[in-house]
Design a protein that fits this description.
366 residues, alpha/beta, 2 domains, six-stranded parallel sheet
Amino acid sequence: MVITRGDTVGGSQTHVLEATRAMRARGHDVRIWLGSAGEFTAVLDDAKIAYEIVEGMQRAISPASDLRAYFALKRSLRGFGPDLISTHATKAAALGNWAGRALGIPVVFTAHGWLLVPGATGARQLALRWGHRAIARLASRTICVCDYDRRLAVDHGVLFDDMIDVVHNSVSDVAASSRADPSTAPPRLITVTRLAPPKDVATALEALAMLRDRAWTLEVVGDGPMRAQLEALASSLDLEDRVTFVGTCNDVEARLARSQIFVLSTDREGFPMSVLEAMRAGLPVVASDAGGIREAVAHGVSGAMVPARSAERMAQALAPLLDDPAMRASYGAAGRRRFEERFAFDAYMERMWAVYDRVITARRST
């Protein structure tokens, strides 16, 4: 497994962690390569999962550092001698896919969202399109984590449809004791997110400011460079006594279980793990209609989808849930059923392993 960032825990890191644990449990030998140490490598240490830091593998483009990182990664992968390389995130994919091609080792690239905007034109979008195309086509196979991302890749000419497998993200289930009671009043809202673009906590705060006449509290779980700015916004909206910024936490499961509504405001997404974790806990979800979120949340059944950057529409979606405990319970139960039926972890691992197995078998047969 090759992934760029080890200093934070986001959706792609959670994906790598869960997949690694499951594959190790099945007897496979798995190692992770990262470009940095920090929050995620601390999790790997606790889980006793082997990893290596590749100096110079960073998000920013730096020809000299990128070249050094490529040769370091290539040497290390040659020493490990894997049957398959699984790459995640753009820079890790650029270096890992290239190294795999040079070493003759098959590569499966998992795209956790593209930096492409439907209908957008201009030099930046053209460069992104060709960059994504060059990276993805070095891999033996590409996994998209939702149908939205598959369509985006095909529509922009990054890949042909027959080069892609769609395997929706999943998370391991939790015990019944870690499930929420959405009917509890007054409702506690929770968002689990990074406080940096493309996440958009500001719109959620503005929406809740329109609903200050109702009883509610909001817990913001996560950290990032915009934390001070968002705390100042909450204060300016006179919400400082109702919104708590708790930073990065290792007890998200327990915090979700104590909550009644999950909120995610964002400009761009692939298929966020945080939404699946909320559905797993049995929470109704109110989220921006971005990326593949609609493939998880059934609008009007398990939650509500609202246009991105629309505080008014988010307030309109939240108001009936704040007022009606029975509606919260109904939406939460529907979300939990949807999680069990569509996003069960064992079925997800079978689908992902089927892609890995086909790629390994095809390379061995040639």
